[in-house]
Amino acid sequence: MGFIPEEGKSLPPPGLVNRNSLWLAGVGWVSAVLHNAINHRPPVKSGVHRQFLLATIGWFIGYHVTKYENYTYARLDRDMNEYIKLHPDKFVPKEQKTFAEIVEPFHPVR
Amino acid sequence: MTFNRLLSRAVFVSRAGCRSAFTGSKPDMTNPNWFRVGLAFGTSAFLWGLLFKQHSTDTHEYKVRNGLE
Q1: What is the ipTM metric for this complex?
Q2: Which end of chain B is more exposed for a tag (fewer CB within 10 A), N or C?
Q3: Mean pLDDT by groups of 10 residues along chain B of 69 residues
Q4: Which residues cross the membrane (chain B) (predicted)?
Q5: Domain ranges of chain B
Q6: How far apart are the C-alpha atoms of A22 and B53, rounded to whole Å?
Q7: Is residue A4 part of a domain?
Q8: CA-CA distance, A42 to A45, in Å (whole number)?
Q9: Domain coverage including residue A61
Protein backbone atom coordinates (compact mmCIF):
# COMPACT_ATOMS: atom_id res chain seq x y z
CA MET A 1 0.00 0.00 0.00
CA GLY A 2 2.02 2.92 -1.24
CA PHE A 3 1.68 6.40 0.09
CA ILE A 4 -0.01 8.68 -2.44
CA PRO A 5 1.28 12.29 -2.48
CA GLU A 6 -0.89 15.40 -2.68
CA GLU A 7 -0.97 15.53 -6.47
CA GLY A 8 -2.50 12.07 -6.57
CA LYS A 9 -5.50 13.12 -4.51
CA SER A 10 -7.08 14.96 -7.43
CA LEU A 11 -7.46 11.67 -9.33
CA PRO A 12 -10.86 9.98 -9.34
CA PRO A 13 -10.84 7.29 -6.66
CA PRO A 14 -11.30 3.67 -7.73
CA GLY A 15 -14.78 2.21 -7.36
CA LEU A 16 -15.49 0.02 -4.35
CA VAL A 17 -15.77 -2.89 -6.77
CA ASN A 18 -12.55 -3.19 -8.76
CA ARG A 19 -10.45 -5.93 -10.28
CA ASN A 20 -7.69 -5.96 -7.71
CA SER A 21 -10.20 -6.08 -4.86
CA LEU A 22 -12.07 -8.96 -6.43
CA TRP A 23 -8.92 -10.91 -7.13
CA LEU A 24 -7.33 -10.43 -3.69
CA ALA A 25 -10.64 -11.17 -1.96
CA GLY A 26 -10.75 -14.38 -3.98
CA VAL A 27 -7.19 -15.17 -2.92
CA GLY A 28 -8.12 -14.64 0.74
CA TRP A 29 -11.23 -16.77 0.44
CA VAL A 30 -9.43 -19.62 -1.32
CA SER A 31 -6.69 -19.56 1.31
CA ALA A 32 -9.34 -19.91 4.05
CA VAL A 33 -10.94 -22.80 2.15
CA LEU A 34 -7.53 -24.45 1.70
CA HIS A 35 -6.82 -24.02 5.41
CA ASN A 36 -10.08 -25.85 6.14
CA ALA A 37 -9.27 -28.62 3.69
CA ILE A 38 -5.77 -29.16 5.11
CA ASN A 39 -7.20 -29.51 8.61
CA HIS A 40 -9.77 -32.11 7.53
CA ARG A 41 -12.75 -29.77 7.95
CA PRO A 42 -15.54 -29.35 5.38
CA PRO A 43 -13.83 -26.85 3.06
CA VAL A 44 -16.59 -24.38 2.18
CA LYS A 45 -19.18 -25.00 4.90
CA SER A 46 -16.91 -24.53 7.91
CA GLY A 47 -15.21 -21.47 9.32
CA VAL A 48 -17.37 -18.92 7.49
CA HIS A 49 -16.06 -16.20 9.80
CA ARG A 50 -12.51 -16.99 8.67
CA GLN A 51 -13.49 -17.00 4.99
CA PHE A 52 -15.31 -13.68 5.36
CA LEU A 53 -12.43 -12.08 7.30
CA LEU A 54 -9.74 -13.12 4.81
CA ALA A 55 -11.90 -12.06 1.85
CA THR A 56 -12.47 -8.67 3.55
CA ILE A 57 -8.75 -8.19 4.14
CA GLY A 58 -8.11 -9.01 0.47
CA TRP A 59 -10.79 -6.57 -0.68
CA PHE A 60 -9.37 -3.79 1.51
CA ILE A 61 -5.81 -4.30 0.29
CA GLY A 62 -7.06 -4.51 -3.32
CA TYR A 63 -8.75 -1.10 -3.07
CA HIS A 64 -5.50 0.55 -1.95
CA VAL A 65 -3.47 -1.33 -4.57
CA THR A 66 -5.86 -0.03 -7.26
CA LYS A 67 -5.54 3.50 -5.92
CA TYR A 68 -1.74 3.30 -6.08
CA GLU A 69 -1.89 1.72 -9.55
CA ASN A 70 -4.10 4.56 -10.85
CA TYR A 71 -1.71 7.13 -9.43
CA THR A 72 1.34 5.40 -10.98
CA TYR A 73 -0.20 5.21 -14.45
CA ALA A 74 -1.42 8.81 -14.25
CA ARG A 75 2.07 9.97 -13.28
CA LEU A 76 3.69 8.00 -16.12
CA ASP A 77 1.17 9.38 -18.64
CA ARG A 78 1.74 12.94 -17.46
CA ASP A 79 5.53 12.58 -17.67
CA MET A 80 5.28 11.05 -21.14
CA ASN A 81 3.01 13.83 -22.43
CA GLU A 82 5.28 16.49 -20.94
CA TYR A 83 8.27 14.91 -22.69
CA ILE A 84 6.40 14.86 -26.00
CA LYS A 85 5.51 18.55 -25.57
CA LEU A 86 9.12 19.49 -24.74
CA HIS A 87 10.60 17.58 -27.72
CA PRO A 88 8.30 18.24 -30.70
CA ASP A 89 11.16 17.62 -33.14
CA LYS A 90 11.26 13.96 -32.13
CA PHE A 91 7.53 13.49 -32.75
CA VAL A 92 6.98 14.88 -36.23
CA PRO A 93 3.77 13.38 -37.69
CA LYS A 94 4.69 11.11 -40.57
CA GLU A 95 3.53 12.09 -44.06
CA GLN A 96 0.55 9.86 -44.88
CA LYS A 97 0.22 8.33 -48.31
CA THR A 98 -3.04 6.86 -49.48
CA PHE A 99 -3.07 3.35 -50.84
CA ALA A 100 -3.87 4.66 -54.30
CA GLU A 101 -0.44 6.35 -54.45
CA ILE A 102 1.49 3.30 -53.29
CA VAL A 103 -0.22 0.46 -55.09
CA GLU A 104 1.09 -0.45 -58.60
CA PRO A 105 -1.37 -0.61 -61.52
CA PHE A 106 -3.13 -3.98 -61.71
CA HIS A 107 -2.83 -6.01 -64.94
CA PRO A 108 -4.82 -9.20 -64.56
CA VAL A 109 -3.47 -12.33 -66.26
CA ARG A 110 -6.45 -14.58 -66.76
CA MET B 1 -5.84 -54.58 46.41
CA THR B 2 -6.98 -51.38 48.10
CA PHE B 3 -3.88 -51.47 50.31
CA ASN B 4 -1.71 -51.61 47.20
CA ARG B 5 -3.59 -48.67 45.69
CA LEU B 6 -3.00 -46.64 48.88
CA LEU B 7 0.72 -47.28 48.65
CA SER B 8 1.02 -46.88 44.93
CA ARG B 9 2.17 -43.47 43.77
CA ALA B 10 -0.07 -43.64 40.79
CA VAL B 11 -2.98 -42.42 42.91
CA PHE B 12 -1.30 -39.08 43.55
CA VAL B 13 -0.15 -38.47 40.01
CA SER B 14 -2.21 -35.66 38.53
CA ARG B 15 -3.45 -35.93 35.00
CA ALA B 16 -1.68 -32.72 33.96
CA GLY B 17 1.72 -34.34 34.03
CA CYS B 18 0.58 -37.42 32.19
CA ARG B 19 1.96 -37.96 28.70
CA SER B 20 -0.45 -40.64 27.66
CA ALA B 21 -2.14 -40.10 24.30
CA PHE B 22 -5.53 -40.58 25.92
CA THR B 23 -5.35 -37.25 27.75
CA GLY B 24 -4.71 -35.20 24.59
CA SER B 25 -7.90 -33.79 23.13
CA LYS B 26 -8.85 -33.26 19.53
CA PRO B 27 -10.14 -29.82 18.58
CA ASP B 28 -13.87 -29.84 19.37
CA MET B 29 -15.63 -28.73 16.20
CA THR B 30 -19.17 -29.02 17.58
CA ASN B 31 -18.81 -26.09 20.02
CA PRO B 32 -17.57 -23.02 18.16
CA ASN B 33 -15.23 -20.62 19.89
CA TRP B 34 -17.79 -17.80 19.89
CA PHE B 35 -15.26 -15.22 21.06
CA ARG B 36 -13.07 -15.84 18.05
CA VAL B 37 -16.08 -15.86 15.72
CA GLY B 38 -17.22 -12.54 17.14
CA LEU B 39 -13.70 -11.13 16.86
CA ALA B 40 -13.45 -12.22 13.21
CA PHE B 41 -16.82 -10.74 12.24
CA GLY B 42 -16.13 -7.62 14.28
CA THR B 43 -12.79 -7.07 12.56
CA SER B 44 -14.45 -7.63 9.17
CA ALA B 45 -17.15 -5.08 9.98
CA PHE B 46 -14.49 -2.62 11.14
CA LEU B 47 -12.48 -3.08 7.93
CA TRP B 48 -15.57 -2.62 5.75
CA GLY B 49 -16.42 0.55 7.66
CA LEU B 50 -12.86 1.80 7.20
CA LEU B 51 -13.07 1.05 3.49
CA PHE B 52 -16.38 2.86 3.01
CA LYS B 53 -15.07 5.83 4.96
CA GLN B 54 -11.85 5.94 2.91
CA HIS B 55 -13.82 5.74 -0.36
CA SER B 56 -16.18 8.50 0.67
CA THR B 57 -13.22 10.70 1.77
CA ASP B 58 -11.44 10.06 -1.53
CA THR B 59 -14.58 10.88 -3.55
CA HIS B 60 -15.15 14.10 -1.61
CA GLU B 61 -11.48 15.10 -1.97
CA TYR B 62 -11.64 14.48 -5.73
CA LYS B 63 -14.80 16.55 -6.13
CA VAL B 64 -13.42 19.42 -4.06
CA ARG B 65 -10.10 19.54 -5.92
CA ASN B 66 -11.75 19.48 -9.32
CA GLY B 67 -14.35 22.09 -8.46
CA LEU B 68 -17.33 19.78 -8.77
CA GLU B 69 -18.70 20.51 -5.32
Answers
A1: 0.80
A2: N
A3: 62 56 74 93 97 96 89
A4: 34-52
A5: 3-66
A6: 19
A7: no
A8: 6
A9: 15-89
